[in-house]
Amino acid sequence: MDKRTNIIELKHITKTYEDGFSAVSDFNLEVKQGEFITFLGPSGCGKTTTLRMIAGFDIPTEGEILLNGKPITSLPPNKRPINTVFQRYALFPHMNIFDNIAFGLKQRKIPKHIIEKKVKKALELVDLEGFENRKTDTLSGGQQQRVAIARAVVNEPQILLLDEPLGALDLKMRKEMQLELKEMHRELGITFIYVTHDQEEALTMSDKIVVMSEGKMQQIGTPEDIYNEPVNAFVADFIGDSNIFNGIMTGKLKARFCGGEFICVDDVEEGTHITAVVRPEDVTLTRPEKGIIRGTVTSVIFKGIHYEITVESGKNEIVAQSVNSASVGERVGVVVEPDNIHIMLAEDHTNFFQVEINKNYELEYNGTVLDVKLTDLVKGSRLDEDGTVLDANGLELDRQKTRIIVSIQPQDIRMTDEISEGLVQGYISNLIYKGDHYSYVIHTDLEQDFVVDDEYLWNMEDQVGLVMPEKKMTFTVKR
Prior knowledge:
By secondary structure, the chain is an alpha+beta fold. The chain has eight helices and 32 strands.
């Protein structure tokens, strides 16, 4: 058990803007003294907003931030023992390296001899000894990033925040800086909170990773936990490459997915609908007769240290990584060892929304009248001669107190690029490939998300209309 004390605690943090958009929702986190924590997620998931609230640049709409057990929610940035390193280094071009690093110390009126000692130590830490008199425009991107880090750590903050600090560097420099940052963290012993959308960065450097999506924490754990034991399909898809399949438990330690029955190690009750996750490096290709399932190779891509081989089996696609090549069109068998299959309970993605009862007693949603009669839904109700709906007691139905909730399954919604055809419109904010179909999240103009299953590949940010047939809807009356 980790006995270190919490240095930062976020309790039910929410950040909502004036237009109603919620960037972060009910976010809870405890960070231990000296940890290296990484916020990981796609663009727009709320990770930078969370970092800015810790730094004090943004104030939460709801919730509380504690530093060493004391509230700092409304404390301005300059009153917090926290420094931030940004992707844009924000160095002063008119100052040399020494003055850039010493800037914060001079603002605090630190004695000159102490400033010189601290700057020298900071330069040694970032391996830039002898660069004191150099101008910032003579440095490479990696060197400028080191100066930005030195400027932050010279103030000896309790917490160092890093907002995608390596994003402007080339691949080789990023990999070098990842290792250097990890070593700096070890030497300094202070708490690092790091923001990135790069999974490899997070896995390489972190003690713990916080995976975020749509302003919410999806999972927190060690890099090994996140990679090997994802809690849902989003985490499995976002962290590394994954084969994700819908399936069902067919017996004790037996699961059927992708057209075959596999032995697994997760003891889930028979008949349970599940999601199976298999990493490509754990897929073994063999002769057809030896495979649990059989398929045809449709793609072979050389990736340097391995081949990425795609196999089509029925409606499913399985991606394998192998040091051995294969030929397009070749028939192969697929085998997966039991401990390489991660079983998760299937998520219920039923879509729910509420429709209005207009003054004509019609069901209306987003300005469209549905082809459904209210009297068919409300038990004992009937239509009066003047068009008024009466309840079972012969009284006028109270439209304000009668709520109609609609549910519809993801596979029963059709996306269309003819936006006006949809009952509601929006854009694709997330997608996950599930082996034989794509699962999409559509963020609609009504600020509600819908999950849609479709066999065809659409692009992120595509504007779509959602066609929802009334015959596929289930209506529930609440009064």
